Amino acid sequence: MSPSNTMARFDEGFFTGKDGLRLYWMSERPEQPRAHVAVVHGYGDHIGRYRTTFDALTAQGFAVHGFDYRGHGRADGRRGFCATWPDYLDDLAGFWERVRREAGERKVFLLAHSHGGLMATHLLGRGGLQGVSGVVLSAPYFKLAITPPALKVVAARAVGRVLPWMPIKSELTPEHLSRDVAVQEAVRQDPLYNTRVTPRWFIQSTEAQGRVMTLTNELKVPLFVLAGAEDGVASVDAGRLFFEAVGSKDKVYKVYPGMRHEPLNELGKEEVHKDISNWISAHL
Question: Which of 33, 124, 161, 274 has its CA 20 to 30 A from that of 55?
Fold first, then answer.
């Protein structure tokens, strides 16, 4: 089927998470979508930063859906905080079911970036994401690219026992994300972009990373893992080891030279969008 030539319809709103928290969603949908794609953003991130990706995929005839999970973007909750790791998975599960209902008989794919990739992998590992036709992981956050100082980790755990929600300045800079100076400046000016981390999130996400390799045998769905070769945030080696261990027989791995942590927002992102679109199209 050829890509849709009609203008995609944009919709947005809120839905209620499992524990009653209000979460934001948005979607772009051509009149006759070829398939549906659910997008999951990274930590400190929000789905509004993915409009270029939405537009690229809807131009190829796909309906695209995204959401802000707790503590991010337009969603409610303390910024960058989760009481327990499964709270994130419950948010994603609720979003996924909404997209499945919207898709009806059409195939549904998942595109998850960084921390979103860690969430998606865990949800798949516990038997979630029912009916997914394929998963694309962009720069999955399976391990920090740089090992944090041991003293800082000990301090985070100590503070986390007393003030688990305390915001601490992140060492991540806009330059870590992309070489594109326009993207860097947009991040600096973005009131929804979170530049803080919390001790509880750090502890919960680090423990989740430690369990990733125990999930690989359970992952049998078609998989496309991509990364920027110069990613200074999420370990490229950890993503490659995960890919090699995954049980799926239908899997593709690609590293983009020169790109940093956000291939979807990088110079040359058009190639990334095209690769994702072609990969989805091959699985329709």
Answer: 124
Hey, is 227 helix, strand or coil? strand
Q: Please state at what angle helix 51-58 crosses helix 269-281, rounded to 10 degrees.
A: 50
Q: Is the pLDDT of residue 56 over 60?
A: yes
Residue 67 is assigned to a structural domain of this protein: yes
Residue 151 has what pLDDT?
60
C-beta of residue 231 within 8 angstroms of C-beta of residue 206: no
Q: Cα separations (Å) of 151 from 2, 156, 202, 206, 221?
A: 56, 9, 14, 15, 39
Predicted local confidence at residue 154, as pLDDT: 64
Element (H, E) at 149: none
Asked if 74 contacts 25 with a C-beta cutoff of 8 angstroms, the reply is no
1 lies in some domain: no
Residue 29 maps to a domain: yes
For the chain, how many structural domains are there in total? 1
Query: What per-residue confidence (pLDDT) applies to 169?
Result: 73
Task: Give the number of other Cβ atoms within 10 Å of residue 20's Cβ.
Answer: 7
Express each pLDDT in 78-128 by its tens digit.
Answer: 999 999 999 999 999 999 999 999 999 999 999 999 999 999 999 999 999
Q: Find, among 126, 96, 119, 263, the residue nearest to 204 by Cα.
A: 119
Q: Check which CATH number belongs to the domain holding 65 and give it.
A: 3.40.50.1820
